[in-house]
Amino acid sequence: MIKIKTALLSVFNKEGILELAKELAKHNVEILSSGGTAKYLKSNNIAVTEISEYTGFNEVFDGRVKTLHPKIHAGILARGALDQEELQKLGAKKIDLVVVNLYPFADEVAKDDASENSIIEKIDIGGPAMLRAAAKNFHHTVVLCQPNQYDQIDINGVTTEQSKELASEVFSITSDYDLDVSNWFYGNALQQETKKLRYGENPHQEGFLSTGQDAPIDFINPIQGKDISYNNVSDALAAWACVNEFHEPSVCIVKHTNPCGVASSTNILEAYNKAFQTDPTSAFGGVIACNAKVDAACAEKMINNQFIEVLVAPEYQDDALKILLQKPNIRVLKSKNVKTDPYENKMIHGIGLVQSTDLEDFSKLNLNFVTENAPNKDNIEDLIFAMKVAKHAKSNAIVLAKNKMTLGIGAGQMSRVVSTKIAFMKAEEEGLKVEGCVLASDAFFPFRDNIDLAAKKGVAHIIQPGGSKKDEEVIKAADENNLTMTLTGIRHFKH
After folding, report:
1. For 198-205, which contacts have Cβ atoms below 8 Å and span 24 or more sequence positions?
2. Which domains does the chain possess?
3. 81: pLDDT confidence band, cut at 50, 70 and 90?
4. What pLDDT score does 248 carry?
5. Residue 256 known to be catalytic
6. What pTM was computed for the model?
């Protein structure tokens, strides 16, 4: 149990500090304070010992140096009886409670009239030092870093467990603060903005959005539309990631984070027409991402063709925006030209997973043509196109494509041959001819059944990573069926 006899109060945000000080005074706790906090408490008739009086060291450099003193930090870091003798030699007191919050650095940066000098002066030095020292010494020192904690402690005694819990929040706050400062120096986005969503994946789940200025899509400032949902964000990011694989004007339509239609062409309208043609049924209520400016003709065709949840593009013609306003519920968002984060992470039941992002440069693939026949240049372009789409579909992904247009996509199945069957089924449902098309698989074929099925349906060219124990059998099946097979050596498995 930590008994509070001496407290140090030094806060920028004065919310709740007077009430806390009154409670401390009621329990005869000696209060050390500095600068504006000391002045504020004294004006409200709270007995305070100013830090400069306690240390014998006056503030210098307009307050830049005031709490960075051995008597302060020795008092915060002292380990009870172990350090009592040395503490006495310094003429210092054990400080049992540290109450500090930091200069509002991010708020200062956000000001339109903020100067470099004003921003620099909001870089807190003494505050983080005291907070971290107190948190380190949680066995002997209690630390409060935000006003909502003030009523959580019993001044008569704080347990070590509670002190440790309070200390843990310190390092979270100071690390965020340091990141804000670092980002300012590097010219990057500051503190991420967090927004509560209507719900998560399902109505009974809570959902939150956290985003910064370096995000690839501006979810915080939509051009128009209803409030963004958790699923909207997931789908929009999936569509954006896929469509940005392509350099030509391209469109990706996503449903439940899987592409259901993707196409490239010489203009965005034609690209959309081809993408929509793949699977009009699944496109209903889908999310559309474009990698080029949306013009009026394309906007008109989109709203006439389908119900749209979200539309993402880097630019919109003014006339296109007027047309989209006819459907005011469509969430129209702007994408940004940002570098893809080199690492991606997710949390699963408290376990954090981090991996490098799949940023394979398809233009540098070392293609291995392993069959008796080889694809020509146009075939190869379609093969690469299909593999790029397969990269963004869920595991066991199969993509059929021709002339840079998807014909059928099978994904998210436990069996690869089932995904293959689904891809052909989707193409057949929409009356799309697969004869002479290419087939891309995100991972190797475990058996030849996929090859025999593809050949029977009219596929002419196959691309896959290779790497199966059955590669020889699979390649033989391709030769027997007069197909070409290209190996990439790179798997794009996506759970």
Report:
1. 198/227, 198/229, 198/230, 199/229, 199/230, 200/230, 201/230, 201/231, 205/230
2. 6-186 (3.40.50.1380), 217-334 (3.40.140.20), 365-487 (3.40.140.20)
3. confident
4. 97
5. yes
6. 0.67
Euclidean distance between the first and final Cα of the chain, in Å? 49
Residue 488: how many CB atoms within 10 A of its CB?
21
Confidence of residue 191 (pLDDT cuts 50, 70, 90): very low
pLDDT at 431: 96
Instruction: Convert the pLDDT of each residue in 396-417 to its tens digit.
Output: 999 999 999 999 999 999 999 9
Report the distance separating Cα 393 and Cα 426, nearest Å.
15
Q: Where are the beta strands (DSSP E) in 316-473?
A: 331-334, 343-348, 351-356, 368-369, 398-401, 406-410, 438-441, 461-464
Residue with tokens 């299909």: 386
Q: Is 136 labeled as catalytic in the residue annotation? A: yes
Amino acid letter, 177: Y
Q: DSSP assignment of 194-218, as one string? A: EEEES-SSSTTS-EEEEE-TTSSB-
- List the catalytic residue out of 136, 293, 301, 470: 136
CA 5 to chain centre: 44
Q: Which of 5, 111, 139, 256 is catalytic?
A: 256
407 three-class SS: strand
